[in-house]
Description:
The chain has six helices and no strands.
Amino acid sequence: xxxxxxxxxxxxxxxxxxxxxxxxxxxxxxxxxxxxxxxxxxxxxxxxxxxxxxxxxxxxxxxxxxxxxxxxxxxxxxxxxxxxxxxxxxxxxxxxxxxxxxxxxxxxxxxxxxxxxxxxxxxxxxxxxxxxxxxxxxxxxxxxxxxxxxxxxxxxxxxxxxxxxxxxxxxxxxxxxxxxxxxxxxxxxxxxxxxxxxxxxxxxxxxxxx
Length: 210
């Protein structure tokens, strides 16, 4: 399989992002670890820390990680040949499509990315309020100090959510800068085809030379 990685040297952040996109097992493990920390923090001290309970949490967390990666893989099957999310992000940051890009596939991918960014307007604040609000429910089970797993979860989730909120407009504009010309090109092609004269009934394809 031909690699889709760019030829020119890439910044460290891009290399990390591509490595993350190319490592489904690592993504599943990270999601499993976050989910395990989540259910452990929400325990509120009511569930005994027996080995069976911990093993059950680990199994459920691993299943959650596998389900997350599997769902994203199945989602890609709905659009065969479509560019990957990491490629869409890099194109939006560069302000140009990669060489040899299929306009139809890229228009669909950019349109889906724009819808995702629009959904962040309510999904991210709602999730942030929900997770931070749960801190007040977690605290009674542990006294005045939040459990360490929940502190780590907040330390990761809150800055990431704030970055999504602050950068939302910039990311949307970067996607629009690529998507709008593709949409205008499609409309121009449709208008040009609409102006074509309909085929005459007398028109026929000449027989092939024998």
